Amino acid sequence: MNQTITGRIKASTAWADPNRYGRSDRSATGRWFWEIDRVLLFMLALLIGFGLIAVAAASPAVAQRYSGGSVRIDELYYFYRQIAWIALSMPVMIAISMQPRERLKRLSLIGAMICLVALALVPWLGTEVNGAKRWFNLGVGLFQPSEFLKPFFVVSMAWLLSLKETDKSLPIFTFSAGIIGIVAILLMRQPDFGSTIIFAAVWIAMLAIAGLNMRILIGLGIAGIIGVVLAYFFYDVATQRIDAFIFGAGDNFQTENAMRTLTAGGLFGMGPGAGTRKFGLPEPHTDYIFSVIGEEFGLIACLMIALLYLGIVARVLIKLLDEESSFAILAAAGLVIQFGLQALINMAVNVQIAPSKGMTLPFISYGGSSMLALSIAMGLLLAFTRRNPYLSRSPYVVKWGGENLRG
C-alpha cells in the first residue's frame, strides 16, 4: 500500500524530472518560465507594444513643439528614446519577477524609505517643470521619486497590514494612516494632487481587502470627500482644476482640445501619421497620448486598450481568489489596483470626465522614469502571482492529470 502511494506521488511530481515533458532546465530561469503567469506577461507585452506605436505617432508633434531657432529635433526622437527606455526597463521587470517574495519584501521596504527621503528633498533640490517640482535632473533623464514610491509603498503596506494576522493587538491601522498622511503632505507640497488621490485610494482599497471594519471604511470615505472639499477651498491647485472642470472657469483648453482630438478620427482613425490635431495638444506624448491614439487609430483602438487594462486587472484579481498568503494577496491586489486606477484617471481626463491631473497612461505614455517605475511595479506583480502550475493551493494536495493525491 505504501509503495503504491509512493509511486503515485512520484508520478505526480514527475514534472520536476529533467528528462520528462521537455522541462530539462532546472535553473532559476527554467522554474521562472513554468511558474510565471504567461497570459499576464503577454498582455503587458502587448500593452508596451501599443505604447511604442502610440509614441511613434505622437513624436512628430512633440518634436515640432520643442524645435525652435537653431534647435531642430528629429521627428522620431522621442520614439527612439522610448525604445531605449524599454530596452532598459524590460530586463529589470523580468529580473524582479524572478526573485522570491521574502527578498522582494525586504527590498521594497528599503526602496520605500529611500523614496520617502527623496520625496522630502524634491521641493529644495528638485527641477521645476510646468510649475511643479516633482523631479530630480540626473542629466540622462528626470527621476520622479513619487513614481518609484508607488510600488514600494504598496508592498510595504501589504507587509504591514499582513502583520495583523500574527498579532491582532498591533495598531496597524493607526500606523498605516500616519504613513499615508506623511506621503500625502509630501506630495501636495510639489504639488501633485493626482498622485495623492491614487495613494489614498489604493490604501483604502487595501484596508478593505485586509478586512477593516466597514464602519471605519465608510468613515474614511466620508473623510476623503471632506478632504477634497477642504482642498478646493484651501489648496490652490485643486481650486483651479475643479473650477476649470466643473464651472469652465480659467484655462480649460487642454481637456477640451484633447476631447476634440480623440474624436477627430472617428471609429477607425485617420491613419498612422495622418493626424493633425495632435500638433495642438500641449503634451501629446504623455498626458494626452490617448487622444492621439483616438485621432490616428480610432475609437475602436481606444476601446481595445481600455479593455486590455481591464483584462490585466481582472486577470490578477481572479488569480488571487485561491491564493493563501495574505501578504501576496494584498501586495498583488494593491499593485494592480494602482495600475488600473492610474490608467482610468488618464483616460477619464482625455474624454473630459475628470479634471486634468498631469498623469501618464501606464506603459503607453512616453517617459523614462515612468517606464522604469512601472516595470518595477509589474515585476513585483508577476513575482507575487507566480505559482507552481502542478500544485494545488492546499499544501496537502498534489494535482496531476486531474487526479488529487493527498499526503
TrEMBL record:
Origin species: Sphingomonas caseinilyticus
InterPro entries in the cross-refs: FtsW/RodA (IPR001182)
Official protein name in the record: Probable peptidoglycan glycosyltransferase FtsW
Transmembrane residue ranges: 39-58, 78-96, 108-126, 146-163, 170-187, 193-210, 217-235, 297-318, 327-351, 363-384
Keywords of this entry: Cell shape, Glycosyltransferase, Membrane, Peptidoglycan synthesis, Transferase, Transmembrane, Transmembrane helix
Family that this chain belongs to: Belongs to the SEDS family. FtsW subfamily.
Swiss-Prot/TrEMBL catalytic activity: [GlcNAc-(1->4)-Mur2Ac(oyl-L-Ala-gamma-D-Glu-L-Lys-D-Ala-D-Ala)](n)-di-trans,octa-cis-undecaprenyl diphosphate + beta-D-GlcNAc-(1->4)-Mur2Ac(oyl-L-Ala-gamma-D-Glu-L-Lys-D-Ala-D-Ala)-di-trans,octa-cis-undecaprenyl diphosphate = [GlcNAc-(1->4)-Mur2Ac(oyl-L-Ala-gamma-D-Glu-L-Lys-D-Ala-D-Ala)](n+1)-di-trans,octa-cis-undecaprenyl diphosphate + di-trans,octa-cis-undecaprenyl diphosphate + H(+)
EC number: 2.4.99.28
Main location: membrane
Membrane topology, record value: Multi-pass membrane protein
Pfam families: FTSW_RODA_SPOVE
Compartment(s): Membrane
